[in-house]
């Protein structure tokens, strides 16, 4: 098992330059693995599990771009920085279009190298090498894409609780994947070869609840032209997933409680009860405890459903999963939209990682799909991501206050640096902040005053 130190795989057939790179990156606090060929780099991938690859472009045998192609096939989210003494503008453009994270010309500026590696670490760090390198993943969790310790801990709980008959209630915000987790519970359980039946309680009219869940006999009410077995019987032997159980009308709650306690149901219009064998998994985005205290949810049903409670973390609490999920969705969308789009530009991916995602994984999927559908380049640009997120927020909800503040603060700092041409002292004075505090703000938003000085100088030239 690797430790938590950030790992960089460095590739160059010039052994003296390789030693120099290794010393520079090690001095920056990184764990460095130097190798002298692309072939050796590929051999080290599975064992060393790097977070970033830094490689020379021109090497005997496998060159840097060939190595990039080979690594990208195995680990699509692993960032690669290309170094060359023979670089041209065309080389850099071609490399970045293919998805190379960075392109630096030798002799390499030490600060720029460390800066690019650090940015790659922040955006991509911890990419799920396990799935990309064909390590085994249990079938029951194969559709849950994660490298988050929070979600891994939750999946460990799922693995244990799935072997019992205990009712499980899954709590989490809308769009976090509660149904996916319910399916994982079912597929990890001894009932995996039996039906998994899902029902959204908020979508059923109150007068049809009993008929939908327990079934009805022909002629039981107007419109009952045939027998209907109901969802409990459809799930017999397997798992019944009650999504948004907090929206269930109180008039039906006592009947559900009795069905769970006795494992029998009586279809509408029937005179006899029918035995069923159903594992109940429920989910809600509302606070059931609060609903219970306010008399909107029965206390006895609450405790019956909450034998085991699982809490799905929001996407903003596991940002390390965002690059992984984005790459996974792009791969999924290749069939309907074609495989022209290979990924996101570094700036676009950074924006995705830093966004708050009020709609969670569902919103991320929608944004990725919109970007894939509209992108005319292999790498989705930042502007397209911003437009897609803006459209999502406009149609659903305003961005969270924290996200709005962060965005405003960054735009404000950018404007200050543009006005002052990168002069930090002047910018801090305009903002009425001391230099130390102002530098902290710049670091928080990854803004380099030198970039604005150079931009101003270029315009003057």
Describe the fold and architecture:
By secondary structure, the protein is α/β, with parallel strands linked by helices. The chain folds into four domains: 7-132, Response regulator (Rossmann fold, 3-Layer(aba) Sandwich), CATH 3.40.50; 139-313, Rossmann fold, CATH 3.40.50; 316-399, Helicase, Ruva Protein, domain 3 (Orthogonal Bundle), CATH 1.10.8.60; 402-460. 49% of the residues lie in helices and 12% in strands. The protein is built from 22 helices and 14 strands. The chain has helices spanning 15-27, 38-48, 64-74, 89-98, 110-124, 129-132, 149-161, 178-187, 209-214, 230-234, 250-262, 288-293, 299-305, 322-332, 334-337, 346-354, 360-374, 382-396, 401-420, 424-431, 435-444, 449-460, and strands spanning 7-11, 31-35, 52-56, 80-84, 102-105, 168-171, 196-200, 239-243, 264-265, 274-275, 279-284, 308-311, 343-344, 379-380. The strands form four sheets. It has a five-stranded parallel beta sheet with strand order 2-1-3-4-5, with helices on both faces. Strands 7-8-11-6-12 form a five-stranded parallel beta sheet. Helix 2 packs parallel to helix 3 and helix 17 crosses helix 18. The relative contact order is 0.08.
Q: Would you spell out the secondary-structure blueprint of this structure?
A:
Layout: E1 7-11, H1 15-27, E2 31-35, H2 38-48, E3 52-56, H3 64-74, E4 80-84, H4 89-98, E5 102-105, H5 110-124, H6 129-132, H7 149-161, E6 168-171, H8 178-187, E7 196-200, H9 209-214, H10 230-234, E8 239-243, H11 250-262, E9 264-265, E10 274-275, E11 279-284, H12 288-293, H13 299-305, E12 308-311, H14 322-332, H15 334-337, E13 343-344, H16 346-354, H17 360-374, E14 379-380, H18 382-396, H19 401-420, H20 424-431, H21 435-444, H22 449-460
Parallel strand pairs: 1-2, 1-3, 3-4, 4-5, 6-11, 6-12, 7-8, 8-11, 13-14
Antiparallel strand pairs: 9-10
Helix pairs in contact: 2-3, 14-17, 16-18, 17-18, 19-20
């Amino acid at each position: 098992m690797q430790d938590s130190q950030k790992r960089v795989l460095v590739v160059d057939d010039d052994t003296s330059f390789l030693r120099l790179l290794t010393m520079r990156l090690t001095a920056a606090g990184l764990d460095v693995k130097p190798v002298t060929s692309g072939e050796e780099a590929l051999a080290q991938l599975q064992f060393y599990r790097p977070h970033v690859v830094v490689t020379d472009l021109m090497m005997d045998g496998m060159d840097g771009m060939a190595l990039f192609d080979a690594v990208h096939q195995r680990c699509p989210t692993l960032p690669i920085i290309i170094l060359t003494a023979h670089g041209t503008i065309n080389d850099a453009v071609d490399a970045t279009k293919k998805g190379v994270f960075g392109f630096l010309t030798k002799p390499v500026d030490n600060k720029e190298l460390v800066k690019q590696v650090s940015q790659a670490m922040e955006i991509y760090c911890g990419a799920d090498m396990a799935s990309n390198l064909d390590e085994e993943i249990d079938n029951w969790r194969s559709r849950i894409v994660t490298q988050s310790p929070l979600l891994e801990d939750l999946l460990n709980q799922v693995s244990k609780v799935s072997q019992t008959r205990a009712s499980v209630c899954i709590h989490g915000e809308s769009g976090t994947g509660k149904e996916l987790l319910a399916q994982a519970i079912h597929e990890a359980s001894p009932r995996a070869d039996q039906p998994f039946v899902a029902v959204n309680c908020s979508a059923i009219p109150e007068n049809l609840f009993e008929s939908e869940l327990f079934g009805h006999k022909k002629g039981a009410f107007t419109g009952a032209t045939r027998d209907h077995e109901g969802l409990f019987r459809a799930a017999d032997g397997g798992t019944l997933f009650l999504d948004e159980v907090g929206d269930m009308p109180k008039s039906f709650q006592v009947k559900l409680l009795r069905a769970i306690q006795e494992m029998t149901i009586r279809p509408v219009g029937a005179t006899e009860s029918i035995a069923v064998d159903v594992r109940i998994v429920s989910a809600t985005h509302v606070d059931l405890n609060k609903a219970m205290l306010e008399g909107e949810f029965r206390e006895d049903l609450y405790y019956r459903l909450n034998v085991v409670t699982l809490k799905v973390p929001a996407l903003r609490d596991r940002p390390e999963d965002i690059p992984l999920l984005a790459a996974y969705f792009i791969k999924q969308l290749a069939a309907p939209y074609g495989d022209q789009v290979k990924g996101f530009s570094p700036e676009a991916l950074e924006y995705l990682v830093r966004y708050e995602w009020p709609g969670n994984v569902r919103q991320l999927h929608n944004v990725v799909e919109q970007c894939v559908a509209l992108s005319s380049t292999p790498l989705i640009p930042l502007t397209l991501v911003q437009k897609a997120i803006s459209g999502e927020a406009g149609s659903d909800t305003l961005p969270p206050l924290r996200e709005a503040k962060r965005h405003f603060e960054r735009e404000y700092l950018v404007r200050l640096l543009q006005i002052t041409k990168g002069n930090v002292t002047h910018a801090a004075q305009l903002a009425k902040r001391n230099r130390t505090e102002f530098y902290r703000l710049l670091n928080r938003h990854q803004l380099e005053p030198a970039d604005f000085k150079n931009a101003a100088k270029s315009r003057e030239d």
